[in-house]
Structure formats: C-alpha cells, structure tokens
Amino acid sequence: MSALAEYRRNALAPPAELVEQHAALVRRIALHLAARLPANVDIDDLCQAGMIGLLEAARSFDPGAGASFETFAGIRIRGSMIDELRRGDWAPRSVHRRMREVAAATHAVEQTLGRDASEAEIAEFAGMTVQQYQKTLADATRCQVLSMQIDNGDDEESTIDIAGPGSDPLASLEEGDFRAALVEAVEGLPEREKLVLSLYYDDELNLKEIGAVLGVSESRVCQIHGQAVLRVKSRMVNWSGRELS
Questions:
Q1: CB of 213 closer than 8 Å to CB of 196
Q2: Averaged pLDDT of the chain
Q3: What residues form DSSP beta bridges with 239?
Q4: What residues form DSSP beta bridges with 157?
Q5: Are 198 and 186 in contact (CB under 8 A)?
Q6: What is the pTM of this model?
Q7: Which of 3, 200, 203, 245 has its CA 20 to 30 A from that of 159?
Q8: Residue 154: its pLDDT value, please?
Q9: Cβ pair 160, 181 in contact under 8 A
Q10: How far is 200 from 210, CA to CA, in rounded Å?
Q11: Alpha helix ranges (H) inside 23-158
Q12: Who has greater pLDDT, 127 or 38?
C-alpha cells in the first residue's frame, strides 16, 4: 500500500476499525518487549495494557500531524505496556537496596582510584563475593530495562529515564545540564559497557543477540549491562542530589 493510500485509509477509519486493523501490532510489540524482560512477565498482561494504548491512540490520532497511524500507535502501545510494568515492579526492596549499595561502592572506589573500578574491587568494597555482586548486576538489568527506554510524550523515546522536574522551576532549568552530565557519564564508560548499552538501547538487540556479537554468554551480557547501569548511577549520584530512577 502506498503512503498516500495508507494516509487516506487512516484519515477515514473510525477508532474501532483502526483498533481492529492494528490488533496484531500489540502482540508484536509485546513479544519484542518480553524478550528483554524477566521470564515471569506475562505476555497476555502486556497485550491487555497494549490494547488500552492502541484504543487511546485510535481516539486521538491526527492524520494531519505527519506520522502514520502505525508509528503513532506503536509509541502509545509500548508506553502503555511500560507504564503497566512499572506499576507492578517485580523487584523486592532488598534488590533496590543492594543496587544502591553497589552504586555507592562503585562511586567510592572510582573516586579513590581515579579510574574505572573492576568487579572484584567493587565487590570487596561492598562486602560481597564476586558471585553476589554479579547477581546484583543481573537484577539491575531486569529492573532498569523498564526505566531506560520510556516514551517522553512527544513521539520520541528517551534513552534513559530521568525523574521529571514536577512543579519545581529550578529543576526545569537544571534539566538540560543534568541530561548533558548523563550523556557524559555514559560516554565515559569502559568501551565494552558502552557497546552493550548501544547494542541494547540503540540497536534494540536482546541479551542473547548481544552475546553472539561479543562472543560471550547471555548471562555475562546481563552482568555487563547491569554494571554499566550501576556505574552510570554512581557517577550521577552527586549531581544536584539527583539520581537515575
């Protein structure tokens, strides 16, 4: 179908017809998202949330805005799924506590050494075995996947979720500087960690596919990703008292 034909079809189709025509898109997005989430996430739950997003998209779609309905709906569907996942955060408080401890340990070690800290150095400072540390990294990957690709409300996606400024005018002024500092923190990561983040968030490869590219196991990629996330958190912790969510 030509772009003009698709435009005319979407411009004339009522919401119910748009939902029916694009129902398969919901499951496709759910499967793509689920491939990057813990195994206990239910596909049907994602689809249910996605259908709500599709319905909202059908009701609010403006064909004169320039984007196709599929593009517009895809953003709304995915955002609705992620909102549902965030409301049902799977991780117990102990996981979040360990993540904060590891981020703090990473910050302390790197401040002392003046370089990127190794797994063993961070684990020792945090009072963990390397195995316990690596498990925390895996947990960090499962938690953070929900907050590192979030629809920002203007038909684009933020690479890393940042706490919104709310009603604080000063926070609004600081937002640009915070984002710049965040980009700098990511750019300053060890090359392998930066590559994993790029493959995961920019190229949208899953952990298994990244493992094939790097020649390592999926579990090892999970650890590298988690270490990158916590290293970034550690480097942002003192920026005006704000952290990554």
A1: no
A2: 77
A3: 242
A4: 151
A5: no
A6: 0.58
A7: 3
A8: 41
A9: no
A10: 7
A11: 23-34, 43-60, 69-87, 93-113, 119-126, 130-144
A12: 127
CB 104 within 8 A of CB 243: no
pLDDT, one tens digit per residue, over 166-187 is: 334 455 445 667 777 788 888 9
Q: What is the CA 50 to chain-centroid distance, rounded? A: 17
Sign of CA dihedral 160, 165, 171, 175: positive
For the record, the structure tokens of 205 come out as 């490869």
Structure tokens, 231: 């290293």
> How many Cα atoms sit within 13 Å of 98 on the Cβ side?
21
Which three-class secondary structure string do you get for 184-243? Answer: HHHHCCCHHHHHHHHHHHHCCCCHHHHHHHHCCCHHHHHHHHHHHHHHHHHHHCCECCEC
> Hey, how many other C-beta atoms are within 10 angstroms of the C-beta on 245?
16
pLDDT cut 70: percent of the chain above it:
72
Contact of 50 with 80, CB cutoff 8 Å: yes
Q: What is the pLDDT of residues 9-68, one digit of tens each?
A: 555 567 788 888 899 999 998 988 877 666 667 888 889 999 999 999 888 888 777 778
In contact, 52 and 96? CB cutoff 8 Å: no
